[in-house]
Input
Amino acid sequence: MTDYQPENVGTVTKYVVIESFSVTPADLAVRAYEVSSGVMIKETCFGLVIMGTEDEVNRIITEVRKVDPDHIFVKDRGFPPGDPRRCRANLGGARPGFHGIEQEMTILPYISNALKILGTRDPGTVPAQKNARKKPKLDISTLKKMIDAQEP
Output
């Protein structure tokens, strides 16, 4: 077995996923190229893959998110673009993880809508989150019914 020799030490790779009817991945790529310096940017069907130093990648993402903040999402990626261990050009078929992103894309419109609504509300009118750790105690009669209902 060949020892793994990392090629991009000190870099991070992040996905920038766009869920918008008015902004395309190409629009994001143009904006990212305008503000980038020394990073790798790859346009994909769902947005961008950006690889570089953590500070530079985060700076570019901050600028790109200004284009449409309620519809742009960021996700870490463990491998750089074109990595032979994960690249579909080497493996054939869909890239491992593509189907996960495809599934996540189905819920992003709901998140975008919620962010849009929250952005129009006064922070004082947003109800406080209920403490999910405080759960009502199970009373003894309910517990007994549950035990009795168990099959032997």
Remarks:
- The chain has five helices and four strands.
